Amino acid sequence: MNTQLKKGVLDLCILSKIKRNDSYGYDIYQSINKKINISESTIYPTLRKFVKGGYCETYLKESQNGPARKYFKITEEGIKRVKELESEWEEFKITIEEILKGGEHNE
Amino acid sequence: MNKKEFFRKLERKLKPLNKEESKEIIEFYEERFEEGERDNKMEEEIIKELETPEQIAKNVLDRYEISKEVEKNKISIMQIVGILLFDIMFGIGIVVSIISVMFGIFMTSISLLPASFYNIIIKVEGTSFLVRLNEGLIGIGMSVILFFVGIYLLPIAGMIIGKMINANSLAIIGKKVIDEKGRNRIIVKIKSYTKKSIIYAIICVVINLGVVQITGKNQEGNVSKEVVEAFNSIEPVNIELYLKEVDLTLKFHDDDTILVDYNGYGEEEVVIDVNNEKNIIKIKNNGYSSKRGSGRMLDLSFTPKKDRYAILYLPEDIKIKNFKVEKNIGNTNLDFANREVLETVQVYTYYTKEEINVKNLKAKEVIINGDVLQIEVDDVVADEMRLITVKGSIDIKNVKTDNVYSRVTLGEIKIDNVSEINEGKGVMELDSLKIEIVENEINFSKYIENGNKEGRYYR
């Protein structure tokens, strides 16, 4: 998959993952990396960006083995943002499909 | 690479970010290590899973480029003004101090030049053209060096400010002057130019010093002087010496000659004026500093002249009436070899930190007055003696006198074997031995043989 495209949808993937349930950095990375190959180092700045932008909040949660983890939790702002991104994605998807279909017609 | 190194590298690579940003990324990775450790992985394994610190930093920075653009506008004008003010205040301090030092150096170098040329052009008695030329060239060489020392300071100031500015707000302006190797173009230019000039100036001075050595040697032959001046008179004669900046050693010899030795800095020729009509022998020079300008301050060929002396012939049947020495810097050694002075021997010195030594003298009155470290009187017979100095010691030994007045403001007076001329006639007026000391001690050891009375001194 194209890197630029990946970057664009990465925000959506991460945010909706957090929206589904609170999660910590490494977990987010792993769950996304299973589906699309991304580099770990792009996840962390993105998470930070979300916190700064007010889409996420963090809290510490004790774990059974090892020190507490920093969990990310979606905010109202974040839910709005997910919706925005989702509709953008839908639009994008439709546009691409149209282009692809149109392309077929033109051939 | 272990965990520690990994974080050290990462931290270094993340430097372009601000502290908070890079700290958060580091925290993410610390947590990431914890995750690995939960799965009982070794440090090395975790590091293998991760990208290299370089790669991480690259990705992170890429990612931030986007967010940076948003944040860029948030840097307040006040912040920029603050940084600028900081730069300017520091910069002004450094620039002002360096410029004032430069100004001082420039002025010195400029003031040296005319003096150096003056030295070459104006003929001064007793110096050859070659010597003057060299002295002048050295002066010019020195001023060239000083001039470039001054110039050299400017790029240093520039460098300091450039560094500060480069590090802070005006990075863009700084970059224009910086070449591909990261050097300041202006500084590089001035540096190379300065280097060449300094080398040239040093070579000039070295060559000149060499020539001075050679010509200096030639000069030594001209310095010594042998004059035998005969004095013919039946009347007693006055001898007067007015000498500046020389060590004077004067000694009467058995063959009726007087050796007058005057070595030192007093460069002017010593004039010996034998006046048979007025019965005066005058020996006189003008000091070194009296005629020459400030150009001599840095004169490297400024060495004492040696082996300079004159011999006077004074038949024994000619009595000496008065003997007088007036001197400034330099020692004074007078050995009269028991030749009698009918009236007064006077030694006055000023601006001197050296010694006056008078011995083997018979006179009516002896006056020694000078700001010297030591006055020493040995084997002297005189009706009256006045020995005065400010600081130092007065050493009186083997003296016969009726009346000694000796004063030292800060120092000591030593008296050893002093007796009265009229001793044996039963007259010992010890009230006449007046010693005045303002500070320090007095040493009365053996001060009057056979005497049982004490000297009086005033504090």
Please outline what is shown here:
The complex is a heterodimer of chains A (107) and B (459). Chain A has four helices and three strands.
Main attributes?
heterodimer; A: 107 residues; alpha+beta; 3-stranded antiparallel β-sheet; 3 strands; 13% strand; elongated; B: 459 residues; alpha/beta; 15-stranded mixed β-sheet; 9 helices; 15 strands; 30% strand
Structural class of chain A: alpha+beta
List the helices and strands of chain B in order: HHHHHHHHEEEEEEHEEEEEEEEE
Q: Which quaternary structure do these chains form?
A: heterodimer
Low-confidence stretches of chain A: none
Number of strands of chain B: 15
Fraction of residues in β-strands of chain A = 5-15%
Radius of gyration over C-alpha positions of chain B, nearest whole angstrom: 40 Å
Strand order of the largest sheet of chain A: 1-3-2
Q: Specify the biggest β-sheet of chain B.
A: 15 strands, mixed
Strand content of chain B: 25-35%
Total helical elements of chain A: 4
Task: For the record, give the distance between the C-alpha atoms at the N and C termini of chain B, rounded to a whole number.
Answer: 85 Å
Shape of chain B: elongated
The assigned structural class of chain B equals alpha/beta
Shape type of chain A: elongated
Helix fraction bin of chain B: 40-55%
Task: Give the mean pLDDT of chain A.
Answer: 83
Written overview of the protein:
The complex is a heterodimer of chains A (107) and B (459). Chain A has 107 residues and is α+β, with helices and mostly antiparallel strands. Helices cover 69% and strands 13% of the residues of chain A. Chain A is built from 4 helices and 3 strands, in the order αβααββα. In chain A, a hairpin with a 7-residue loop joins strand 2 (56-61) and strand 3 (69-74). In chain A, helix 1 packs across helix 4 (76-106) and helix 2 packs across helix 3 (40-53). Chain B has a 15-stranded mixed beta sheet that branches. In chain B, strand 5 (271-275) and strand 6 (280-284) form a beta hairpin. Chain A binds chain B through residues 24-26, 39-42, 44-49, 52, 63, 65-67, 69-70, and chain B through 21, 24-25, 27-29, 31-32, 34-35, 37-38, 50-51, 55-56, 59-60, 63-64, 67.
